[in-house]
Specification:
This protein has helices at 3-19, 23-29, 34-42, 61-72, 76-88, 90-96, 99-110, 225-260, 272-300, 306-332, 342-350, 360-371, and strands at residues 115-118, 134-138, 141-151, 159-165, 176-182, 187-191, 203-213, 262-263, 266-267. The protein is α+β, with helices and mostly antiparallel strands and 378 residues long. Strand 2 and strand 3 form a beta hairpin.
């Protein structure tokens, strides 16, 4: 068995054994039990991309993508938490951080800690270069004031990667730094009541005079924007992987239901219209999988075209994923629309893929700018 298939099998076994029994409760209660968090962390899903020399699994983007896909097949909440803490948080530290930052913060993740990535603000979602959270340098410290919103993992996090403005507002992207901020009373966390991915801890953060050492700036002061964009490239692929897992789950639910539900004396799978829906769903699922895996491979290879492929994967999986889950609900009919149905939860969850880590509209802009040669990795 290859390493990739071993990761898929072990993650599926864990998801079925440990997450399947609690997935509905996580959604209904909008929280993950501590014992479940602990077991997910012990399995290494919150530290997927932490290199082995710092105690982590050291997975590639493709391997992480497959693990997240399998988590999402059962629990979207756990999958998106793994996307952030396991991929988006360790990536910039491992690639751009100092040795001290790597040893401390990658070590925290490897030992079962959780990280959060704080970029979005009430003022600014798609326009990341317009953030207003201020990082004021005072001696050898940086003082942070501002508000972040829609931050995954926030209530569970041991530390945060925070995008702050250390330059002038008119400097736009040239005045942004990426700072590591430890959990502290200065971070006021208000959990939000979201439509989907419930339990993942999506929250608003108020940063009130938070102080951290300048040594916690990743890279150089005012040089954070490109690092953030490169992190989002990886985040888009792993977020697309959560969509892929949701699509797989919806397809399985619809296919099994179509073989059991009868209409006019035969299982509904015998009706041509239902066959057409099942076939179309399968095409969308397998096409999405090929695109997501190809984007992951290109990121692993540091292909100059990887950012474009990341956006293609995110856009296709988001838009067609919504279509697939809608078709699954159509196959299930009234039961699919009820809260007793898994597909009802999947329908709420899949919509986030069209919004988080860059909307569908932003992905289209990235794709065209990349084709025009305006976007290249740093």
């Amino acid at each position: 068995m290859s390493r990739v298939e071993s990761i898929r099998q072990s993650t599926r076994e864990f998801s079925e054994r440990r997450l399947r029994p609690v997935a509905r409760a996580i959604d209904e209660r909008n929280s993950v039990p501590e014992d479940v968090l602990r077991e997910v962390a012990e399995m290494g899903y919150f530290s997927l991309r932490v290199p082995e020399e710092y105690g982590g699994p050291g997975l590639s983007v493709l391997e992480s993508t497959i693990a997240i896909e399998e988590l999402a097949r059962v629990s979207s909440a756990i999958a998106i938490m793994a996307t952030v803490s396991g991929s988006m948080v360790p990536y910039p530290i491992a690639k751009y951080g100092t040795e001290e930052q790597k040893e401390r913060y990658l070590g925290i993740l490897a030992k079962g800690g959780i990280g959060a990535f704080a970029l979005t603000e009430p003022c600014c979602g798609s326009d990341a270069s317009a953030i207003t959270t201020r990082g004021t340098i005072e001696g050898d410290e940086i003082v942070i004031e501002g508000t972040k919103t829609y931050i995954t993992n926030a209530p569970y996090a041991d530390f945060f990667l925070v995008a702050v403005r250390t330059g002038r507002e008119e400097d736009r992207h040239k005045g942004i730094s990426l700072v590591i901020l430890d959990k502290s009373p200065c971070i006021k966390i208000s959990k939000l009541d979201m439509m989907g991915y419930r339990g993942s801890g999506t929250s608003e953060l108020r940063l009130e005079g938070c102080r951290t050492s300048l040594s916690n700036v990743i890279g150089e002061v005012n040089g954070g924007f490109k690092k953030i964009m490169m992190t989002l490239n990886e985040g888009r692929v792993t977020t697309a992987a959560t969509g892929l897992g949701i699509m797989q789950a919806a397809f399985e639910e619809a296919f099994e239901y179509s073989k059991q539900r009868t209409s006019m004396g035969v299982p509904i799978i015998e009706h041509q219209m239902v066959q057409h829906l099942i076939a179309e769903m399968n095409v969308l699922l397998e096409t999405s999988r090929l695109i997501v895996y190809e984007a992951a491979r290109r990121l692993d290879a540091e292909d100059p075209e990887a950012p474009r492929y990341a956006s293609i994967a995110k856009l296709f999986t988001a838009s067609r994923g919504v279509d697939l889950v809608r078709m699954a609900m159509q196959v299930l009919g009234g039961f699919g629309y009820s809260r007793d149905s898994v597909v009802e939860r999947l329908y709420r969850d899949i919509k986030m893929i069209e919004i988080g880590d860059g909307t569908n509209e932003i992905q289209r802009l990235v794709i065209v700018k990349s084709l025009l040669g305006k976007i290249r990795p740093s």
